[in-house]
Amino acid sequence: MRPRALISLVRARSILPLIQRLIALRVEARKWLINGIIGRLVLPYMGRRYTAEAMAADRVTYDRLKANRFLPDRVFVQISRRCNLTCSMCGWQIWKRNKGFMSLDLFKRVIAEMTANGIRNLEFTSAQGEPLLSPHAGECVRLAIDAGLNVHLNTNCTTLGDRNIRMLAQAAKSRRFTVQASFSGYDKESHESIYVGSRFEDTSKKLQALCQTFDSEGVSDALTINGIIMDAATKPKHFDFLRTLGIDTKRVRLGYPDNFAGIVPVGSKDQQTGIYSFKLGLPYRPLHLCHLLTSRLVVYDDGQVSACPGRDSENVMNIGDIKTEGFLEMRNGPKYKKMVDAFMARKIDDMPLCAKCDIPYVLLG
Q1: Angle at the Cα of 218 (from 217 to 223), degrees rounded to 5?
Q2: Lowest-confidence segment of 32-46, 189-203, 209-223 by average pLDDT
């Protein structure tokens, strides 16, 4: 390396901590602006303005939902209730049961119900469970693809052995199957403090093998990586590490977690609402008709169905049982209608999950 280039490299490395600190200060300054004096003056006005816009948007959503007979756009399926991690952004603290797999017969019932109602999108994900732990995972993926569905699977990467990687890559060749790998971290501490129970070196190698296989099989566009971080200033470190694995960071998304229906105290506590969140200025963000409630539902491993697909691990928002009822019947029943009406009336205090959840609040700015 030339002397001048070496000097430039040394200088760059010496100022990197300063740049990272400036990024952190920028984040803190934004928090102060939004939650501080300026926020108290400006955001109430913005809140009133956005509330009117949110109400108008919700009416459009409601009319579209009604026109579609209140059916969801996609169905989440919990083929495995068991999870092998206790991630810091997850609501595992309230789990009453961490075992159980959906039977193939019950899964076929889900597919039949989706087909009968013209629902084309199925996701192997839920508020609890790693789908690749199911002994029927590969068969369920094949059955869903053969039924002509658009299929998506979320994995925490720890279960990515050679067999599962080959199965996922083969499924991706159908062009109706996609995978989201959940991963973040640039060293042992940054990874294992988020994905508790995962081993950094082992899991990162598995992620690397998954990406390499998808690239070599010509299905790289079927794989994305979604990672949770708790400090925006560290984002460059996460990206830099992924590049060392040969991963194109264009397929990577890193971001803050939501508060998992108020179960996980992330970010900071808003004094006015009592809600923990990374979202700033929460009291002035108007409530929206939750997109999870309108566009999705989840079928648990035992056939029970909840209106909240991604944050209700304990079936608090139950609307039926697929073993005895159909999706059309459930979504037009009194339980589901009451939930939607509560959002439209902006009266969700009696909904235990929704009342403290930060997901349905509009992001301002």
Answers
A1: 95
A2: 32-46
Q: How far apart are CA 325 and CA 336, in angstroms?
A: 14
The pair of structure tokens assigned to 268 is: 């900071």
Closest of 353, 360, 358, 194 to residue 280, by C-alpha: 358
Per-residue pLDDT band for 8 (boundaries 50, 70, 90) equals very low
What are the structure tokens assigned to 97, written together? 């049961």
- Greater confidence (31 vs 58) lies with 58
Q: Shortest CA distance to 143 belongs to which of 118, 117, 167, 179? A: 167
For 297, counting Cβ atoms within 10 Å of its Cβ (0-12 exposed, 13-18 middle, 19+ buried), the class is: buried
Name the token pair of 46: 């913005």
Dihedral pair phi/psi, residue 213, rounded to 5°: -65, -45
Q: CA torsion, points 33, 36, 40, 46, in degrees to nearest 10?
A: 30
- Strand order through the sheet with 296-299: 252-255, 223-228, 177-182, 150-155, 121-124, 74-77, 296-299, 304-306, 318-321
The answer to whether residues 69 and 114 touch, using CB atoms and an 8 Å cutoff, is no
Among residues 336, 260, 261, the alpha carbon closest in space to that of 295 is found at 336
129 confidence band (pLDDT: 50, 70, 90): very high
**What is the full DSSP assignment across 196-264?**
BTB-HHHHHHHHHHHHHHHHHTT-GGGEEEEEE-S-GGGHHHHHHHHHHTT--GGGEEEE----TTTTS
Identity of the residue numbered 263:
I
Q: Return the amino acid letter for 297.
A: L
Q: How many whole angstroms separate alpha carbon 222 and alpha carbon 150? A: 12
pLDDT digits (tens, 9 = 90+) for 93-103: 999 999 999 99
> DSSP assignment, residue 361?
B
> pLDDT tens for residues 242-268?
999 999 999 999 999 999 999 999 998
With 0.70 as the threshold, say if the pTM is over it: yes
CA dihedral 311, 312, 314, 315 (to 10 degrees): -170
Mean pLDDT of the chain: 89
State residue 18's pLDDT score: 57
